[in-house]
Amino acid sequence: MDNNDWLKQLLLVGIGTTSLVAERLKEVSEQWVKEGKINPDQAQDFVDDLMTQIKTGQGNFESNMERQLRNMLQDLGVPRQSEMDELRGRIDRLERQVRDLENKLWR
Q1: Interior/surface letters 18-28, b for 16+ CB within 10 angstroms, e for the rest
Q2: Has this prediction a pTM greater than 0.90?
Q3: Residues of the chain with pLDDT > 70: what percent?
């Protein structure tokens, strides 16, 4: 599986979790309104404030996950795309040099 696929799956899990949390927060705040603990405006403010905090934290979480995933892949010895591109270029140059040498021998 491609590294980007893993990252996308992790991010989708985070988004799904955020949606579940939002749903649950709304349910809890509605229950508090029914019980008379808070008024509807307070409930909406409560949900909005917490969702803002979660979304801010989610951005940090995503950045941290990307960094940790990159570090883990590096520790496992998985090359970065730029390293692979550099190696492909080196192989292409070496193949050209071998062909040039072979052509010189056959002349």
Answers
A1: beeeeeebeee
A2: no
A3: 79
